[in-house]
Every structure is written in C-alpha cells, then in structure tokens.
Amino acid sequence: MADQAKLSRHNPYTNHVFHRVIISALVLLLSCTAATSDRQPPLISQLAKDPETSLYTISVKADKSPLLLDLAGSLVWSTCPPSSAHSTVPCESDTCAVAKQQSSHRCRYVDGGRFWENREPGPSWCACAARPLNPVTGQCSTGDLTSLTMKANTTNGTMELRPEESFAVVGACAPGRLLGSLPAGAAGVAGLSRRSLSLPSQLVAQRGFGRKFSLCLPAFATFGDTPVYLPTPERGFIDYTTSIPYTPLLTNPANAGGYYIPVKGISASWHGADAAAALPRGALDIDVRTGRGGVVLSTATPYTVMRPDVFRAFAKAFDHAIIRGKVSFMERVPATKPFELCYNGAFPMLKRAGLDMPYIKLELGDGATRNWTLFNDNYMVPVDGAMCVGILPMGPDGMPVDGEPAVVIGGKQLENNLLVFDLEKQVLGFSMLLSVQLSGCRSSYFFRN
C-alpha cells in the first residue's frame, strides 16, 4: 500500500491534474478575492541597485532571488524547476488568453521559440505557453504560465511589519538563456505595468488594498494604499503622498500598459539663462492612430533616451543654458560613450544640495498640478573627471520600450524621487529630487524598527 502511494505521488498525470487544480484555484482567487474578502494590509519590499548595470531589483520571490524591476513589463517571470515539477495554467483558460494578449509584439527569440523540444508527451501539452520578455536585450522566449510563490512584509502605514507574508502570483517560466544583461543574480523580471497580470494588478485583485503602488528608487516599493513618511527639515516626518504634485497618466493604444505622462515641452535654465528646446509642433504627443510618440517611464533603462529630433533640440537648449549661464569657466569636452553631452566638471557647489547645475524642466499639460524639474543628481553622471548628461539619443536598435515613444524617461531621472502610481484615478505623483528637499528614499520611516 505504501509503495502504491509512493507511485501515485510521482505519477506524471496525477501531478499534472494536481497542479492544474492548484493553479485554477489561484486564478479563481485573483478574480474573486477583492470582492469577497476584507481589505488586507499593504505590502512593502526593499529594492537594490546593481552597480554594474545601474538597474533595480526587487526580492519578492520566496527564495529571495532578485527580479528586475520593469515598469513596462506585463508579466512576472522567472527561471523555474523542470516542467514535471511546477504547476501550469490550462491552455484553454481565460488567464492563458490574457497572457497571450499581453505578449510583446517586438522581440527576438533567445531560443528560436523551441518551447516544445524535449517535453514529454501527455496532458502537459495543454499547458499555457506565455512569452516572457527581457526588456534590456529585447529578447523573449516561451515558457509555461505557472504559479510563483512570493514573500513580502506588510506595513501599517508607518513601519515595516514582521514576519513576511507568503502569497502566490501567476507568472511565466523562462530559460536561463533569457537572463542575459540583467543585474547579477537576477532570476527574472517583475513587471509593474497597468496590465492585468503585472505584479501590482495581481496584488490588488488578491488583497483589495487599493489600486496604488509607489516606488522610491533605489530603496523601496509599496503596494496598496499607504502613506509614505519621509523626513523634512522643518516638520519632521510627513506623509509625502499628500504633498507632492500629480500629473494625469495617459493611455497609448499601442502600449496600453505603459506609464505615459503629458510632457508638452522641455527647457533648461541656469543663472538667468532660459532656453526652450525648439521642438516641432506635437513632437512629444502620442499619435492616436499608430501609438507612436509620447513620453513614457522606464525602470529597465538606466538613462533617459530621446528620439534623435527631440535630442538635438534638447542638446542645443542645454548648451545654450550652459554658455549663457554666467559661469565663464564652463566648457564642453569630448564625450565618453554612451554619453553625448559632457562638460569640464568645474560646476560650483550649492550650499544645500550638491553641484550648481542647470535645471531641466519637463513642462506638463493636461491637468498636471506642477511641472517636473530635474535637478543635478537626476541627470549628471561623473565620468573621468568630466560631468556628462545622463540623457541620450536613440541608438540604432531603436527605443528600449514598445510603441516607439518620443522619450523614455530612465532610472537615473526617477531615482531618489517618490513616485506614487494611483491607478484608480489614473494619476502619477512625483516628489522630484528628494535630496534638494533635504530628504531621501533611504530615510523613510518604514525601516526604523
């Protein structure tokens, strides 16, 4: 009898049926929990910045292997055990149909799409095949849609609470070959887009804690409707989510999951010299017919990337502000790749917040409560004694985000900046550079216990 039980546990068909029952229960949970359960506490997770790639990871997997943080990503994906040891989603399920709709339209298969090679015949052939994407290389693969076990701390709005809570999300398996160019040790990607299988969307469906999440790179992320207490010099710790400006989030028909903001113009200012980028009319707008254009946020791109016509106009305006900014000893120097604009590094010091450098202003429209200003540390990068502008022209491989945007705002420009994604109201809160306000992401009250 014991031998019969042992055989049953290792029977591939029995395992497949068991896995399908588990994954079906998870899918049902995702669709029903928010409507039938009490609101659960928000989650918080610390982040890390990889010094080699300048990209960010989140360690929410139960085994703590980090996942690349990808604002544009539609899925959570990771390397997985062999197909006989992980659960699968039925290929005829609604969840599988959603996963296929969310697949990137532009990618190069890392394995030639040979998903079915070496798979054992049997019921597992009806496992849903998802298409995980590496946003750094633009490569993709195919792999089972499965259940991934996660862990994170909850928060009461002021402190990180312990112990961690376990939960599961629907995610995709991927081969190790897809991990190229990701931060060291990364096992996959945590997609944070507005699509229904992203990490924030699944957590909202499970926990019913409000359609919000926040990022404060490179320190932490919160999921759910929670205050974020950061220090101020005059008032001590305050809830920054109530005092920062907000801008509407736009929807792009070609990239419905992306976080687009309504930038209408770009300018540079320094010591009384103001220079607006001479952009063609509508250069930053989204083309509603093709989905091209617009300004989108990305945490999988280290620096802001501009379409060539936009970059030329920006570079001319920035140079103008430097030259006419009444600091006679400033001069352009040969650039170090990948940068295009580098200066001699002799910028004067400010009393409170680093070097005295031009302000770059993203002029927002469509109901934004304030323009978005980039200060020194949000764009300047020290390179071999020079200071280089961390804003780049588009390269020969095109834009790093789907939909051919006009501008991709990268991690350097988002760092040390509290970003609150309110998907109920479809708005983005942005603090701008916290160090200029004598605050910072690493000073959060969450981790003071």
Keywords:
six-stranded mixed beta sheet, 2 domains, Cathepsin D, subunit A, domain 1, 6 helices, disordered N terminus, 449 residues, alpha+beta
Brief description of this entry?
The chain is α+β, with helices and mostly antiparallel strands and 449 residues long. The chain has 2 domains: 10-226, Beta Barrel (Cathepsin D, subunit A, domain 1); 230-447, Acid Proteases (Cathepsin D, subunit A, domain 1), CATH 2.40.70.
Termini separation: 53 Å
Helix segment count? 6
Mean pLDDT over the residues: 87
Count the beta strands. 31
The CATH class designation of the largest domain is Mainly Beta
The main sheet orders its strands as 1-2-3-10-4-9-8
Mind telling me which CATH architecture of the largest domain this is? Beta Barrel
Domain Peptidase A1: 52-431
Signal peptide: 1-37
Keywords: Signal
GO molecular function: aspartic-type endopeptidase activity
How would you describe this structure to a colleague?
This protein is an alpha+beta fold and 449 residues long. It has 2 domains: 10-226, Acid Proteases (Cathepsin D, subunit A, domain 1, Beta Barrel); 230-447, Cathepsin D, subunit A, domain 1. The chain is built from 6 helices and 31 strands. It has helices spanning 2-9, 12-36, 94-101, 199-207, 308-323, 411-414, and strands at 43-49, 56-58, 67-70, 76-78, 108-109, 129-130, 139-140, 143-155, 160-173, 188-191, 212-216, 220-223, 229-232, 236-239, 246-248, 250-252, 255-261, 263-270, 273-276, 295-297, 304-306, 332-333, 342-343, 359-364, 372-374, 380-383, 386-389, 391-393, 407-409, 418-422, 427-430. The strands form 6 sheets. Strands 1-2-3-10-4-9-8 form a 7-stranded mixed beta barrel. A 6-stranded mixed β-sheet has the order 16-17-20-29-21-28. The longest helix is centred in the N-terminal third of the chain and has 25 residues, at 12-36. It is globular, with a radius of gyration of 23 Å. The protein starts with a helix and ends in a 19-residue tail after the last strand.
